[in-house]
Design brief:
homodimer; 443 residues; mainly alpha; MgtE N-terminal fold; CBS-domain; Tetracycline Repressor, domain 2; 3 domains; three-stranded mixed beta sheet; 22 helices; 6 strands; elongated
Chain lengths: 443, 443
């Protein structure tokens, strides 16, 4: 939908046309379209959205738009909205709203819902509890398929997903039944005969990254969440797991580039926030690389005697850094996807060692020949070639070992990525280079 | 399940116990357990898996195990397996198997299936067509809810998902109905009244990365795939979209660390393959950084006069590289998630410019004071501080601009990540540093 046409229709009060447009649009697209409107237009447009779509459009809006709407809603409008919102979307919204609006909302919900909301708000930000919803289909083992279908017909419309149903006994989860089975099995079959008892579940405090991994491993639509006492307290749905997967990848990528991760998109963070996320690591790395510089001054005699030696410093430092990044990146990603574990330590190190010998040899030959042709100096070519092999081997070993050590001591391996590795490897490449040079040139 | 106990039971031919264990295990876990067995044990164990689980276990195995089993299966076993496998899993398997086994399989399926399989195999590897399945629930607009449910009861068991049903008219897609609606709406309601006509669909040749993005944007369970003539030819299900999302993040991360991406996990690639994926970029970057070295030799007089100048080269190069990586990483990820587009070019550049001024100032002050205290040399402190500001600004600008240019000319922005940026930025930091030094020290 073209924004300009939409705004023109709004301004001309052609509400019938606006309503027809909103009627055929998808909720996600409506939220996107509305995000481009001025506050006043937003208020009018939101009220023209068909009733059955309004809540989903609302849950797809960002918190600024949500705040504005909650502020201007009448008591009745707010109640209607909260009734239609799923519990996890309500909680997501509350986490972002200013305090006065939060209390306005908590005043508008029923006492029972208020208790539930407060419980959900109390789960740690990275836990399964924080992304779960409390609305699921609850069955009993002695129901028949037909009874279950009747139960879903009555209550299902208010559940975020009805495609996995949970069989409970005194609130304990004893089995699951898929809607597919209910739809394809005989009406008189009892749930007990149908239900899956090999249960895959998580706890309220399970890390949401692990939740996402389980979703992907088992291709789930929903995953039950149990409390300490094994009681079923909620479910996580696949759409939230998908978001976690993407967020976690972004977080890893951000950390790997020496920044504090931000949950907000690029344009939603201010210049100062961005600077604050970037400066700490830069400072640490800057002072760390001073060590390399200090070591360099120790070889003043060497590069005073042969100034050409300085010309190869950037090449060796960069190559070391790049080789180290390659290894650390693969290991970090492997650890994140559970393809590599700490028990594989020696296997990884041995593999990287063999790879580094091949890579080092190829780079050494290529650059050795280049130096020989350019400077007609065999000794220099040998120094460069040997330094390259040494740098590649050391940097690949450091690159693969550090992330594994980090995972061992429960640090995030992602912080052991390129920038830190590069800084460490720099020192080694300078040491290797000048020691070989000093030796071969008798400096 | 403990592997050793399982193997012991197999060896003691306690098949009843093995069958009971397999009976209560999840298909994904069975595939994992079987992957640790020897070929002979694998053959026995696979035949002990309950019939209704065998196909799903099989589709969760890697291609080596699948090859082995296809080889030893009787004609009857193979037919049973192929009947139970979903079309997309069959195609996935065929893409990995050796030619002789592929023809064995194609001989075992019906002529109609063979045509379908060949069609699916012909779609490009990164397209929606390559990950779709042709098994979906097909409804007519004049069916009632009750009729639709009866239709699903009859045919649904063989469909990969029944949770979104497709309403077609002469093979053209005219609407979708969710299983949730079928389960909660009145039995006599007609599909036409219920169906969603705001269709979200892709083409067979749509890039699978875009498919994954659409899934995430609209929280879909399945997405219809249309051919050139607008006919419905298949659907992509959310589990495949989830895999694509994770694969694409891995691919980006790998490219960002200057490697060719591999579709296989770390341990599944040989040492030679790994070396082959890593060497090309290393060679390019190594020769690129020789430029920096050559520029360095131009300032021989400067560092012969003041050898201490060399000590700051690693620090400036590293800081420039790190600053550039931060910006390029954020922009690359933003582009991948569609949070940043090329039309935001000037907004991004202006934002990064302001950030770089803050970051540069902080680093310059910190390091300037350090130099002043350590060397009691005001001129040197000023040179370092000014060089830092210049390096940070230039590297952040290069870091944010290159990925955007790449996206503009339809190159993958991920290749414009840290390693390439670092190499480019090195040259600039050396130029800035020695020009400022030459000027201020009158060299």
């Amino acid at each position: 939908m073209d924004k300009d046409i939409f705004v023109k229709l709004l301004q001309q009060r052609q509400y019938k046309a606006v309503r027809s447009i909103l009627d055929v649009m998808n909720e996600v697209d409506i939220a996107l379209l509305l995000s481009e409107l001025e506050d006043k237009e937003l208020a009018i447009a939101f009220r023209l959205i068909p009733k059955d779509k309004a809540a989903e459009v609302f849950s797809n809006m960002d918190s600024t738009m949500q705040s504005y709407l909650v502020q201007i809603f009448t008591e009745k409008e707010l109640k209607e909205l909260l009734d239609a919102l799923y519990m996890d979307d309500t909680v997501d919204m509350l986490e972002e709203l200013p305090a006065n609006l939060v209390s306005r909302i908590l005043d508008s919900v029923s006492a029972a819902d208020r208790v539930k909301i407060n419980e959900l708000l109390n789960y740690p930000a990275d836990s399964a509890g924080s992304i779960m919803t409390t609305e699921y289909v609850d069955l009993r083992k002695n129901m028949t398929v037909a009874q279950s279908m009747a139960h879903i017909k009555e209550t299902g419309i208010h559940k975020e997903t009805i495609y996995t149903c949970y069989v409970t006994e005194r609130r304990k989860l004893i089995g699951t039944v898929s809607a597919k089975e209910l739809m394809t099995e005989d009406d008189n079959m009892r749930i007990e005969e149908l239900m899956e008892t090999e249960l895959i579940s998580v706890r309220t405090h399970t890390d949401k990254e692990d939740v996402a991994r389980i979703f992907r491993k088992y291709d789930l639509i929903a995953l039950p969440v149990l409390d300490e006492g094994d009681l079923l307290v909620g479910i996580v749905t696949f759409d939230d797991a998908m978001d976690v997967m993407v967020e976690e990848a972004t977080e890893d990528i951000t950390k790997m580039a020496a920044m504090s991760p931000s949950e907000k998109p690029y344009f939603a963070t201010s210049v100062f926030e961005q600077a604050r996320h970037r400066i700490p690591w830069l400072l640490v790395l800057m002072f760390a690389s001073i060590v390399t510089g200090t070591i360099l001054t120790k070889y003043e005699n060497a590069f005073s005697a042969i100034p050409l030696l300085v010309a190869f410093i950037p090449m060796l430092m960069d190559t070391g850094g790049n080789c180290g990044s390659q290894s650390s990146t693969l290991v970090i990603r492997g650890l994140a996807l559970n393809e590599i574990q700490f028990k594989d330590f020696f296997r990884v190190v041995f593999k990287e060692f063999r790879i580094s010998l091949i890579v080092g040899a190829v780079l050494a030959i290529a650059n050795g020949i280049r130096v020989l042709v350019q400077y007609q100096n065999i000794a220099l070519a040998v120094v460069i070639a040997l330094s390259l092999v040494g740098t590649v081997v050391i940097s690949k070993l450091i690159g693969c070992m550090l992330p594994m050590f980090a995972s061992r001591i429960h640090l995030d391996p992602a912080i052991m990525a390129s920038p830190l590795i590069t800084t460490l490897v720099d020192t080694f490449s300078i040491l290797i280079y000048f020691n070989i040079a000093t030796l071969l040139f008798n400096l």
